[in-house]
Amino acid sequence: MAAVACKLVNGDLLPERCRDCPLRKNGFCASLSPAELARLHPHLIRKRLQPGDRIISQGVANAHYYHVVSGTAKLSAVLEGGTEQILGLRFAGDFLGQRFAPEAGFTAEAATEVELCKVPRTALDALADANTHVGHLMHRQVVAELEETRAWVLAIAQRDARQRVAGLLHRIARRQPSEHAGARFALPLSRAEIGNYLGLTVETISRQLTALRRDGLIAIERKTHVTVANMVRLATAAGINA
Q1: Which helix (H) or strand (E) segment is 114 a member of?
Q2: Taking the alpha carbons of 89, 200, 151, 184 in that order, is the dihedral positive or negative?
Q3: Co-location of 185 and 214 in the same domain
Q4: pLDDT of 76-95, one tens digit each?
Q5: 165, 205 in Cβ contact below 8 A?
């Protein structure tokens, strides 16, 4: 196996590829020590995917874990009867994988251009087995994901159509890199997929997007590029205590 190129950072040897990676200070990797990263580094593969490219396939053996470096991934599942259900979105810093599940329970694909780190399940599981700290990190990732899903399901159940659409836009916007009060992004889901996710019709999605634009909460260019000028106003429209 090739030697790992490392540089001295704050007194520790850190793999060179990891040194300037944005995830070094965000997400799962932020909690790994230089030594732990150096152990994983020979197994890491950095990939860039285009919209629609498959990351994980439902029902296929879980052979790898993924860490989203940039972009947005869409999670979905095929239900009994063949109906597809949108389960959620994953953004930069999010972790994809199910440690104790032999097969993937969902499909993940690039919703926008996505860059990610791919690591064999055997390599990360071995590190977790040898280091309780890493195992706890992986467990906390799963708990955080479940809590986020629970909160989102409750939010959808308790909100009207306007609040659901505004809430989804707010959730996407706050996960975008920005130094300003607003955000700009390409919608990672089609209107039909948004309707699937929020339990609304395509016509309702279009009406609510038009209303939010008319009220000055968002701007939409080329049907998919959304600009949010003020996150606080959008949060209020979504019924979120910003």
Answers
A1: strand 114-120
A2: positive
A3: yes
A4: 999 988 899 999 999 998 98
A5: yes
